[in-house]
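Intended use. Records like the one below are meant for learning the mapping from a protein sequence to its folded structure. Do not use them to infer anything beyond what is encoded.
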Amino acid sequence: MLPQALENVIEALGMLPGVGPRTAERYAYYLFKTSPKVAENIADSLDNLHKGVKFCPVTFALINADEEMSPLYTDPERDKTTVLVVEEPLDIYAIEQTRGYKGTYHVLGGAVSPIDGITPDQLHIQELIRRVKDDNVSEIIIATNPSVEGESTALLIEKMLHEKNPDLKLTRLARGLPLGVDLSYADQITLSAALENRTKL
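Structure written out for the chain above:
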């Protein structure tokens, strides 16, 4: 029988995605046997998480609680007429690491998934449609994940945007086979995208 305080930590850590019972036990025991300062720092960070972070009201990116809007939107060097659409806020940082994109972003807040009960009205699609008008957007780049849900969401966004803005330029990130992947291990969506986006040699 483990001490109750340790059981509580194991249970709390087990609520994290991808953390099973054994992993939660290892993490909890590590936190107990290491310096109390480590556990205090983690506890303080978690305590300040919801106080110090909020969503940008325009892009729905993550911002500091004392900021009004995302710097990636307010920066005068950013091109507001180009908007890259992603599913989750952390997807932005993957794009930013490339240092090759100078437009703005729009976070949907997920992907349409009837199985998980996520419907189009729960995503920030209407806000995206409004941004097209408010920022005089000329191009929307759809960068949803290469999954069934991501593809379905992309098609829905294309349909909804074209209905309101038939002249709007809609593009998608190129998809295909990553380097070093054996064809036999590639999924159907990736293979289909690779065929569709094939290039001339």
